[in-house]
Design goal:
By secondary structure, the protein is of the alpha+beta class. Helices cover 44% and strands 20% of the residues.
Length: 858
C-alpha cells in the first residue's frame, strides 16, 4: 500500500502545474465472463487525457494501478512502458504547454470492492460489475490525475458482453456493440462510475417547473441483481428520490445539474453508498429480503437523501483536498436528516440522529485519533481513515448547531450563494465561511476556530440551587472538556425542566439560550418550580455530552420510561450510555435500565439502539464475574418482551432478533430450534429467511447447529446473501479447528472476497468464546504489519480492526498492544492509528469493568 500513496504536497505541486481539459476512457469488460485462463482476470483500459502544463519542459506523473501497461503515448511519441510505469505511476517528462496522453493498459478486476469489482452470483452464475473509487481507486480502472481538484469532463465507453447493459455518469446509447455515454460536466475522478451486467432495471421520471418558465426533466432509474428483483421495492426508492429532489430544489435554488439520476444497489459493497453524479451506488443490503422495522426504511431514505445532497455538496462544488472532506460529508449527513424530516414520512429522523449518529461521533471524538472536523490529511491513507464519525456525524451535529447559531434562512441562503459562486470548482473552508458571514452578519472566524478547528467533545452538567420555598434560586450549566482537548465552546442550547404529572414525566419550562465558558448562569429559570429532571441539551441543538445532577439521575433511574417526549427520552438514553462508557455509571445499572424501561420505548429505532448498547455493555463493560448473570437476565428479559409484544409488530420483530443474540441456555436454544423447525410458534412472528439466519448464528456459536445444519440452510437460501450468512455462521462454531481455518482464510489467503472476509471476521470473534480465541491475541500482533503491507487498504482496515483481540480484555492485551506500538514506531501512521483506536476501546472497557465491579462490592 505505501507505493500507492499520494501525499498532499505532491497533489499541490501537480495542481499548480497542470490543468485537465478532458478524458476519453474506453473499457472492454467482455473478459468478465467465461473461463479464466488461470492468471488474474484483467480487462483492457484505454485512456486519452488532454491537459495543459503552465511550465513547458516540466515533469509530472499520471496515476495508474494495473498489472501491465501495453502502450504509453505522450504528444504522439511512444514511450517504453517498462521505463515510465512503476506499477502505480506513469512518469511524464518534458511536458508541452498542451498535451495528450494515451495509455493502453490491462487492469485487474477487484474482489475487494475497490476499483472495478467483479461479482459472480452463486444463485445463477451471472456476473455483475460496478466501480467504487473514493478516495483514490479510479486509477485501478483508468489512467488519470487522481486528486479532487483536477476536475475535468469525462467521456466513457464500455464494450460489454452482448446480453449486458452498461451505465455510467452520463446517459448511454448502444451502437456497434459499444455503450457510449454523454460527456459529463467537470467532475473529480473519484466520482466517475461504471456499472455493467444483467441488472434488473426499473425506470421512472421526475419533472419540475423552474423559475425561468422552463421544465426540468430528470430520467430516473434503479437497479439490482436479478436475484434480488422479487424483493426490490423500487416504488419506495423513487418516492423518496422525488421527495428529495423537490426538497433540495426548493432550498438550494440550483437545478440538479447532472442529467439523469440512476441508483444502483450492488453486491459486496464496502460503503453505505457513493454519490457518483447521475449514477449513485448503494450496498444491496438496502433491498430487504425479509421483514424489517421502519427504522431500516428510515435509514435507507436517509442514505438516499445524503447521497442526493452530495450532488451539490461534493459533486457540483468539491473540496480542494481531503483536509476539507467535511465540506461534503458533514453537509450531506446533516442534509440527509434535514430532508428526511422535511420531505418524507420519517418526520422523527432527528430522534434517530440524536440517538444513533451522535453515538458514533461521541466515540470517535474521544479516541486518541480524534481530530478537528477540518483535519490535517497528509496523504491518501489518512484520507481513507477520516471517513469517520467526526467527519460525518460530529460535522453534521456542528452544522445543526450552526443553523441554531445563524438561523436557518441565513444558513440556506449561504448555501445558495456558495453553489452559484463555485459551481464545478473546488473550495476550502474560507469559501464557505465567507458566504455564511455575508448572510448571517456574524463573524464566522471565532465560531470556525472553536467548532471546526479544535477536537474533543464538551460535557454540560446542570447545577441547581433551591431556595427555602422549593424553587430555583439559581440554575447554572457547567462546561467541562478533556485535558487533552481543553477547548470550551459556545453552545446554543435549550434547557428543559421536567416534573412528574399523573405518572408522566413532562416538560413544564423551556429556555433557549447561549452557554459559554466553564459556568453559565441561566437567569431566565430563576424562580421556576424545582425540577425533577433538568435536560441541558433539550431539542438536541448542540453537540455535547449531556450530564445530570443527582436529582435528575435519580429521577431517570425510577421514571425514565415515563418521559413522554420521544426526543427527550432518546437524549437521556444516549446520555446514560455515555456515562456507562465513561465509567461513571456501572454497566449493570445500564442493563437494569434497559430491562425495566426499554419495553416502553415507542420509537423503534431507539429500541434497536438500546438493544445494541445492552449487548455491548454485556460484552465489554460488565464485570467479568457478572457476565453470566447479566447475559441470563438479558435473555430472560428479551424473551419476556418478545412474548408480550403486540403480535406482528415491529417491536416483536426487534425483540425476536435481540432474544436470539442474547440466548444463553438450553431452553433458549431449544426454543430457537423449534421456531426454525416450525414445531413452536409465537403469535404474529413470521420466521422468514433473514430471521432464520439470525436464529442460526447463536445456535452455531454455542455448538447447537453444525456444518450439516448450515449446509441445509444454504440449500434453502442458495443466494449471495445466504452464502454470506453461512460463512459467518461456519466461522462462529466453537471449535479450535474452525477458528484456525477462519484465521487462515482471512490472514494467510486472499481467496475470499471483501464480503466474505467481513463475514468470516464477524463469525470468528464470538463474545462467548474468549478462551477459544486466546491463542490469536499473540498471532494478531505478529501479522498485522504484513497484512497492511500486502493487502488493499480496505481489507487491511477490516483485518486490523476486526481481529484485534478485544475479547482478551485484560492488562496483558494492553501490554502487548503497547509493546507492538513501541516496536513499530515507524509503521504507517494509518496502521498505528487503527491499533491505537483499538487499544483505547479496550482501556475504556477495562475502566468500565472496574466501575461495575466496584458497584457490586459497594
Amino acid at each position: 500500500m505505501p507505493g500507492e500513496n499520494l501525499s498532499r504536497d505532491e497533489a499541490r505541486e501537480r495542481a499548480a502545474l497542470l490543468s485537465v481539459d478532458g478524458y476519453d476512457v474506453a473499457l472492454d469488460v467482455r473478459s468478465a465472463v467465461g473461463e479464466s485462463r488461470g492468471e488474474p482476470r484483467t480487462f483492457r483500459s484505454v485512456t486519452t487525457i488532454r491537459f495543459r502544463c503552465n511550465e513547458p519542459g516540466a515533469s509530472s506523473f499520471a496515476d495508474l494501478i494495473a498489472p501491465s501497461v501495453t502502450a504509453v503515448t505522450l504528444n504522439g511519441k511512444d514511450l517504453d512502458p517498462g521505463e515510465v510505469f512503476d506499477g502505480t505511476r506513469i512518469a511524464l517528462e518534458d511536458l508541452a504547454a498542451e498535451n495528450e496522453l494515451v495509455v493502453d493498459a490491462q487492469c485487474a478486476y477487484s474482489r475487494t470492492g475497490e476499483g472495478l469489482h467483479r461479482f459472480v452470483d452463486p444463485e445463477d452464475g451471472e456476473v455483475y460489475l460496478y466501480t467504487q473509487y473514493e478516495p483514490a481507486d479510479s486509477r485501478r480502472v483508468f489512467a488519470n490525475f487522481e486528486q479532487p481538484d483536477l476536475k475535468a469532463p469525462f467521456r466513457f465507453e464500455v464494450r460489454a458482453p452482448e446480453e449486458w447493459t452498461a451505465w455510467s455518469n452520463g446517459a448511454g446509447e448502444l451502437a456497434d456493440g459499444v455503450w457510449r455515454f454523454a460527456e459529463t460536466k467537470p467532475i473529480s475522478t473519484y466520482i466517475t462510475c461504471v456499472v455493467a451486467g444483467p441488472y434488473h432495471y426499473v425506470t421512472d421520471s421526475y419533472s419540475r417547473a423552474l423559475p425561468d418558465g422552463s421544465t426540468l426533466e430528470i430520467p430516473l432509474g434503479a437497479m439490482c441483481r436479478k436475484g434480488l428483483a422479487p424483493h426490490f421495492d423500487a416504488d419506495d426508492v423513487f418516492l423518496v428520490t422525488k421527495q428529495g429532489l423537490d426538497f433540495f430544489h426548493e432550498h438550494f435554488d440550483y437545478p440538479y445539474p447532472f442529467g439523469k439520476y440512476d441508483q444502483a444497489f450492488v453486491p459486496e459493497y464496502n460503503l453505505g453508498a457513493m454519490e457518483n453524479p447521475g449514477l449513485v451506488t448503494f450496498r444491496e443490503e438496502y433491498i430487504f429480503r425479509g421483514r424489517v422495522t421502519q427504522a431500516s426504511y428510515e435509514a435507507r431514505a436517509n442514505v438516499i437523501l445524503h447521497e442526493m445532497a452530495h450532488m451539490w455538496f461534493g459533486d457540483l462544488v468539491t473540496m480542494v483536498w481531503w483536509d476539507d472532506l467535511w465540506l461534503k460529508e458533514s453537509f450531506a449527513d446533516f442534509m440527509g436528516t434535514f430532508a428526511n424530516v422535511g420531505a418524507t414520512r420519517f418526520d422523527g429522523a432527528w430522534i434517530t440522529f440524536a440517538n444513533r449518529r451522535k453515538a458514533w461521533a461521541y466515540r470517535a471524538d474521544q479516541l486518541p485519533s480524534t481530530h478537528p472536523i477540518t483535519a490535517d490529511i497528509r496523504d491518501l491513507q489518512d484520507a481513507k481513515l477520516n471517513f469517520d464519525g467526526i467527519t460525518y456525524a460530529k460535522g453534521a451535529s456542528v452544522l445543526k448547531q450552526l443553523v441554531a447559531y445563524v438561523g436557518q434562512d441565513a444558513f440556506l441562503e449561504g448555501a445558495r450563494r456558495y453553489f452559484k459562486r463555485n459551481a464545478y470548482g473546488n473550495t476550502r473552508l474560507g469559501d464557505l465561511l465567507s458566504v455564511l458571514q455575508e448572510t448571517s452578519g456574524r463573524d464566522m472566524s471565532a465560531w470556525a476556530h472553536q467548532w471546526l478547528q479544535t477536537a474533543g467533545v464538551n460535557s454540560l452538567t446542570p447545577q441547581v440551587l433551591l431556595d427555602g420555598e422549593g424553587r430555583v434560586a439559581e440554575l447554572a450549566v457547567l462546561q467541562e472538556a478533556a485535558e487533552s482537548h481543553p477547548e470550551l465552546r459556545p453552545h446554543r442550547v435549550v434547557i428543559g425542566l421536567y416534573r412528574l404529572e399523573g405518572g408522566d414525566l413532562v416538560r413544564y419550562a423551556r429556555v433557549e439560550t447561549d452557554v459559554d465558558g466553564p459556568r453559565t448562569v441561566i437567569e431566565e429559570l430563576a424562580g421556576a418550580e424545582a425540577p425533577e429532571l433538568v435536560l441541558v441539551n433539550d431539542d438536541d441543538l448542540t453537540y455535547c455530552k449531556i450530564r445530570f445532577d443527582d436529582t435528575s439521575l435519580a429521577t431517570l433511574r425510577d421514571h425514565l420510561g415515563a418521559l413522554t417526549d420521544p426526543l427527550a427520552r432518546a437524549l437521556c438514553w444516549s446520555a446514560l450510555w455515555n456515562l456507562t462508557r465513561d465509567a461513571l455509571l456501572p454497566a449493570r445499572d445500564f442493563v437494569d435500565l434497559v430491562l425495566r424501561f426499554a419495553s416502553r420505548e415507542s420509537d423503534i429505532g431507539v429500541l434497536q439502539m438500546l438493544q445494541a448498547w445492552a449487548g455491548s455493555a454485556l460484552t465489554h463493560y460488565v464485570a467479568p464475574q457478572w457476565r453470566d448473570t447479566a447475559g441470563r437476565l438479558l435473555a430472560e428479559g428479551a424473551l419476556r418482551e418478545l412474548r408480550q409484544a403486540e403480535p406482528g409488530s415491529e417491536h416483536q420483530l426487534a425483540w425476536a432478533r435481540f432474544f436470539a443474540s442474547a440466548a444463553t441456555g438450553e431452553d433458549d436454544f431449544g426454543l430457537l430450534r423449534e421456531l426454525l423447525a416450525g414445531t413452536a410458534a409465537i403469535d404474529g412472528l413470521d420466521v422468514d429467511q433473514e430471521l432464520r439466519w439470525a436464529f442460526l448464528e447463536p445456535l452455531a456459536a454455542h455448538g447447537a447447529a453444525d456444518e450439516t445444519d448450515l449446509a441445509a440452510e444454504l440449500a434453502r437460501d442458495d443466494t449471495a446473501s445466504g452464502k454470506r450468512h453461512q460463512v459467518r455462521c461456519l466461522a462462529a462454531r466453537p471449535s479450535a479447528a474452525v477458528k484456525a481455518q477462519a484465521w487462515a482464510q482471512v490472514v494467510e489467503s486472499q481467496a475470499l472476497s471483501n464480503a466474505l472476509v467481513e463475514a468470516t471476521i464477524a463469525g470468528f470473534a464470538q463474545p462467548t468464546q474468549r478462551e477459544l480465541l486466546a491463542p490469536y491475541a499473540e498471532k494478531y500482533f505478529e501479522v498485522i504489519a504484513r497484512i497492511w503491507a500486502d493487502r488493499s487498504i480496505q481489507i487491511g482496515m477490516d483485518v486490523v480492526r476486526g481481529l484485534y483481540p478485544s475479547l482478551q480484555d485484560g492488562p496483558r492485551t494492553l501490554e502487548a498492544t503497547d509493546a507492538w506500538l513501541s516496536a513499530h514506531a515507524d509503521a504507517p501512521p494509518a496502521l498505528r492509528r487503527l491499533v491505537l483506536e483499538a487499544r483505547d476501546d479496550l482501556a475504556r472497557a477495562l475502566r468500565g469493568q472496574e466501575c461495575d465491579a466496584q458497584a457490586a462490592t459497594g
